[in-house]
Write a structure and sequence with these properties.
Layout (H helix, E strand, L loop, with lengths): L1 E12 L2 E12 L3 E5 L6 H9 L6 E6 L5 E4 L12 H5 L4 H17 L6 H17 L2 H14 L15 H14 L4 E5 L7 H13 L3 E5 L3 H7 L2 E6 L2 E5 L3 H43 L2 H16 L25 E12 L2 E12 L3 E5 L6 H9 L5 E7 L5 E4 L12 H8 L4 H9 L17 H12 L6 E5 L7 H13 L3 E5 L3 H7 L2 E6 L2 E6 L2 H11 L5
Parallel strand pairs: 3-7, 3-8, 5-6, 6-7, 12-16, 12-17, 14-15, 15-16
Antiparallel strand pairs: 1-2, 1-4, 8-9, 10-11, 10-13, 17-18
Helix pairs in contact: 3-4, 9-10
């Protein structure tokens, strides 16, 4: 049964056509993933299906009676004072109201003055309604989701004061708690640590409803999705399998198209050669028959539908890092202790980062990864112990939440504010990062998360850096840009320290994994797969 249908959807934003007669179908029980470059319209499709946006033309259909659960990419504010627990229980307003009525009737039945039979009859009817609403399962389900997303410590906190990552997790938990027929998830893995990711993957594997999600997390896509929808040039192409399968299929079809193109080019060349020969023979023999043959071939050539040459290589961002030598020891922490309020994060910990190493910091959310980096950067003074940076270090840093000095700046102004050059040189450099034409005049405040990362990279890479520190660098950037970043980091001759929960990225990039847990720092030589196998053998779980 078709759960979601899009038929010839057109959607424009200003003069830019995002969707051009796009079509897709999602069947009942499928876990379909939409992938594509930033700005191609993936989130727009979810907004159209949820009713937040309307198409300019075309039809959207949802199975009659189906309920929707939606996770937005950017969390919205709630009413002041509303707690996390209240946000989580929003889907159960009817259940909670029925529960309060049941308690009131129970109190009434205990009164000697009550008409017991009449109250009991009302109680019986209400109990049936409570059961139908799933009241008896609600508490168990809530406890399970709270534990899985590890929200127990946040239940009494006001929602509006949470970090962006914490809000995302709470909203995700609220969306799945309702158990809707259709889940619409926009970048659900952002801000989830690996342990929570693994739990969520297991949850979705058992989920009985239909899931349509947007994600750039390749590891997650491979483990969860059974249909992949590739969005490009305003069109949707669907593949029956996970992300890796869809990429293999695209490559196979591309090579097939290229072979067809080469075959046709050979045919065209042969026809042109034959036309030339017939004309030469006709002129030599003064025979009109040869000219008629040449004319026939020319007409056949004119009617031929010429195949375009397939683009085997997609445009790439010219990401390239370079930097001078630093010396054997780049960073050392000695007897390092760190606290957040009354919570001790690290206690008498040690860490050594050597030249040319690529070290990934992993750990549960709240274990102090970003705080450690801020201490190294000199942005956090509330620690004890010693931080030793090699004097030759030239730091490059990309934070998790990217901000620019003046949010009203255009892309061009923001770039020239941090890198002094002429307007022409700036526009040439920005064009390499897909900031073309009028896009250089967009305000940085209006940029997508991926566009902000690209602009920050463009600024950073104009300088020589030999020690890169990256905090969740793959958040908000599309898969192609992630792959470019991975390739660039593999070629990078300097030292790298980064925080990530992107397991694919970690496996591709890291030479050593360093974990923060139980107030200490532990190291493991190797990538994510080897680290995961080690933990499995020990009977543990990833951080």
């Amino acid at each position: 049964m078709i759960e979601i249908g899009m038929n010839h959807i057109v959607k424009n934003f200003g003069f830019k056509k995002i969707l051009d007669k796009a079509c897709l179908e999602v069947m009942t029980g499928e876990r379909a993933a939409i992938v594509g470059r930033n700005g191609t319209g993936k989130s727009t499709i979810l907004k159209l299906i949820s009713g937040e946006e309307s198409p300019d033309s075309g039809e959207i259909s949802i199975r009659r009676g189906a309920t929707l659960g939606v996770l937005e990419q950017i969390p919205r504010l709630r009413e002041p004072g509303k707690t996390v627990e209240e946000v989580l229980l929003e889907p159960f307003a009817d259940v909670l109201a029925a529960e309060r009525e049941l308690r009131a009737l129970e109190a009434e039945m205990a009164s000697p003055a009550a008409d017991f039979d009449a109250v009991m009859e009302r109680y019986s009817v209400l109990q049936e309604r409570y059961t139908a609403l799933g009241g008896y399962e609600q508490e168990e389900r809530t406890a399970k989701v709270v534990q899985g997303f590890r929200l127990a410590g946040l239940l009494d906190r006001e929602y509006n004061v949470l970090s962006g990552g914490q809000k995302t997790v709470v909203n995700l938990a609220a969306a799945v708690l309702r158990q809707p027929d259709i889940l619409l998830l926009d970048e659900p893995t952002n801000h989830l640590d690996v342990k929570t990711l693994e739990w969520f993957e297991g949850f979705l594997a058992k989920y009985r409803g239909t899931v349509l999600l947007v994600s750039h997390d390749r590891y997650f896509l491979d483990r969860v999705s059974n249909r992949t929808i590739v969005l490009e040039a305003g069109q949707c192409v669907s593949y029956p399998g996970n992300y890796t399968f869809s990429m293999q299929e695209q490559e196979r079809l591309m090579l097939q198209e290229f072979e067809q193109y080469k075959t046709q080019q050979k045919k065209i060349a042969a026809m042109k050669s034959a036309i030339k020969r017939f004309r030469e023979w006709g002129a030599q023999a003064d025979n009109p028959k040869f000219f008629r043959k040449a004319k026939e071939l020319e007409k056949r050539l004119e009617k031929l539908e010429i195949l375009e040459r397939p683009q085997l290589e997609k445009p790439k961002v010219p990401i390239k890092f370079s930097g001078a030598r630093t010396g054997a020891e780049v960073l050392r922490l000695r007897d390092f202790s760190l606290a957040f309020g009354e919570t001790v994060l690290l206690e008498h910990a040690g860490l050594l980062v050597r030249e040319k190493e690529k070290v990934c910091l992993m750990g549960d959310n709240g274990t102090g990864k970003t705080s450690l980096i801020k201490a190294v950067l000199g942005e956090l003074a509330d620690y004890s112990g010693e931080i030793v940076l090699n004097p030759s270090v030239q730091l490059g840093y990309i934070p998790q939440e990217i901000r620019f000095p003046v949010e009203k700046d255009s892309v061009l102004e923001a770039f020239r504010r941090e890198y002094v050059c002429s307007e022409g040189e700036a526009r040439n450099l920005l064009a390499k990062y897909f900031f073309l034409g009028a896009n250089v005049f967009k305000r940085v405040s209006s940029l997508s998360g991926g566009e902000k990362v690209l602009l920050k990279l463009c600024i950073l890479l104009q300088n020589q850096v030999n020690f890169l520190i990256l905090d969740e660098p793959t958040n908000h950037i599309d898969i192609e840009t992630r792959e470019m970043l991975e390739d660039a980091l593999l070629e990078y001759s300097g030292t790298l320290l980064f925080i990530s929960h992107d397991r694919y990225f970690i496996e591709k990039t890291a030479s050593r994994i360093t974990t923060l847990r139980e107030r200490r720092i532990d190291s493991f030589d190797g990538g994510y797969a080897a680290y995961r196998a080690y933990l499995t053998k020990k009977g543990g779980t990833a951080d």
